[in-house]
Sequence to fold (160 residues):
Amino acid sequence: MVEKDDVKQHILMNAYERRHALEAHWGDEAFVYAFCRKLGTQYASAERDARDLEDGRYYYTPGEARQALETFVYSDEEIGQLMGREDDLLRARITDNLMSARMDATYSLNRLPKATQALLMRRYVYGLPAANDAERKAANRAVDALARQMNRDLRKAATK
Fold:
């Protein structure tokens, strides 16, 4: 999906731009390898996300992932009873799309690291406030990770 030469060029470009920081660790092969691997993984992930966004299929946003998480406290029957009750002239607040988003979020949530799962559950399902600014930012990154995982799982299911 991503050309090997593109990944190599991205790694080399970043290594050149950060050469002053890398010079201190140049003899440490494990550090240099980890640095290059992380850059390559990030580049490939960004390219995959860009392709997913442009492929014309449905794409979950972090807001939709957050909304799906916030409804985990309700059973499917309770969500069914809420459908149409909070609608106004501008939008439907609870739609049948929420049911599929809940299923996708449930599946994708289990594929995330345990610490990320716990943070998402604490913040968005149980509604506990963030303890500090760092936890708030971590929760926002966790929602982004959940949305990316939901999109990846959605595309995997479509190709099967």
